[in-house]
Amino acid sequence: MKILITGGGGFLGSRLARALLARGRLGGEAISKLTLLDAGFPAKPEDLRVEHVQADIADADALEKAAGTDSAAVFHLAAVVSGAAEADFDLGMRVNLEGTRLLLQALRQRGRAPRVVFASSVAAFGGELPEVLDDSTTPRPQSSYGTQKVIGEYLISDFSRKGYIDGRALRLPTIVVRPGRPNAAASSFASGIVREPLNGVPCECPVAPETGIWLLSPRRVIEALIHAYELPPQAWGGDRVVNLPGITATVAEILAALKRVAGAKTAQRVAWKPDARIQAIVKTWPVRFRTERALDLGFEADPDVESVIRDYIAEERIKL
Amino acid sequence: MKILITGGGGFLGSRLARALLARGRLGGEAISKLTLLDAGFPAKPEDLRVEHVQADIADADALEKAAGTDSAAVFHLAAVVSGAAEADFDLGMRVNLEGTRLLLQALRQRGRAPRVVFASSVAAFGGELPEVLDDSTTPRPQSSYGTQKVIGEYLISDFSRKGYIDGRALRLPTIVVRPGRPNAAASSFASGIVREPLNGVPCECPVAPETGIWLLSPRRVIEALIHAYELPPQAWGGDRVVNLPGITATVAEILAALKRVAGAKTAQRVAWKPDARIQAIVKTWPVRFRTERALDLGFEADPDVESVIRDYIAEERIKL
Predict the structure, then answer these.
(1) Beta carbons of A154 and B147 less than 8 Å apart
(2) Chain A neighbors of B135, CB-CB under 8 A
(3) Reported ipTM
(4) Predicted TM-score (pTM) of this structure
(5) Domain span at residue B262?
(6) CA nearest to A245, candidates A212, A290, A285, A186
């Protein structure tokens, strides 16, 4: 089978690609080809099954020609992150909204109703929220990124209802710990406060210690993307959007866990430097969820913050 | 002040234009110019303040040049109706989604943050619904039209949050009684079963007598559009979408009211001819609402179905 991953050059996309290649199969079928679509790639493909397509997802012609739209499986992860979509409104609209619309139209033209997994976000929610959100909470995003993600969900749902695709949209919690460098996501600090200290690098935290975060590890997110794909259509029924499970932790709790795992000296590399712009975005995000439907569907959260940190240390082969 | 009405050649748009010209003022300001944008117009303008612009709302260049985007007030009513958007997916996506996105982008480019009233629809709701919907019910549209309207709402909200417009989106109930001829809206019958018999014309009803409808008269809809405009921004706050009040009536109740108002002979001009396609769309629409926020904001419903029918008879000068 052929698989397309948009945003395949990014953190989640490349990690998903590695996981799929290691499995060799998806939904019971052997993977023959993996097309990664992205605006750029850090390195050449290392596996003969992998094809890199460098293209702008919001360029309809490029997208149409760029191959991959004959894939039976599509993981649509390409996006401009929250901070960047808020700072550059046109860029976010073009990539996150137009890119999604054009991709779905291109897939529809092929007429084979591929199974499409869409990475939506907890940023769908905002404004005045209940203490604990659940599957009936109405998305009222307070960022352009969140708005564009919600619109993507509605497109995924309608294209699925019409039978043009078999779509599944997952609202991802904040991913902790992201490896690599800080990015323009407003949530970048949530990984930074663990990653930089473990790498021996000082780190400035732009939000207060009591700031709560709804988080999930990269490993669980990749598992969720694959699980979402492998669930049969009847498990999803008419509702193609789900809040993924996660765990709730404050910044203070994350640093306490870091101290327990890696020692006080490491945890002390975090300094407080409040950033009003980041605070303003993050405080509109939800912190606690009851994710009954996702748990019923078999999605799983990490057991606790310590295990999230230990996973990162093991994966990155960090010596304490 | 200058006003732009998209869909200004249509039923609601032309009626809104007449109402505004009769008032002469909007939001305390004298109306100097009324630009009506539409794909076509049934007649030439009869008032010197009125300008007709024939253009495709999904044509960015036409929209940009077509004038009207320097208006301080915009009523965005242009849309492909529900039945047509379901039958021609591309047409609905182009006009209802792309048209709205391009209009908002064009307004944003002008940089004067016009006040924008957007006609959304009760078709935003569908699927498994509570017996009575309220302001917290999550839109899960079961038609492409409903999906495109919900997406329009999210765009209106985000453009407002960013300060690019001062938007207000109204979820209109089914409008009863629409004058003129049947159209491609799945709800067309709801007006037809009153209008055709009153005009002495036989009529076929495609849905069962017990089918419930959430309805509002054209007069109340026009009042709501103007009221939505005239409310100050602080009345809307961060939530720019509202379910309008309406009344609930079954097809049988509407025909009983017609009989009381116009006699048994008139009401008997309706024959039953079930249409599975129409039934399938209409049965996903909500029938009962608690519209607390709209009532708090001063929006009003008709008192009962008889008065809706009497209004129509008076407006159309029908002799019983």
Answers:
(1) yes
(2) none
(3) 0.95
(4) 0.96
(5) 188-213+247-288+302-315
(6) A290
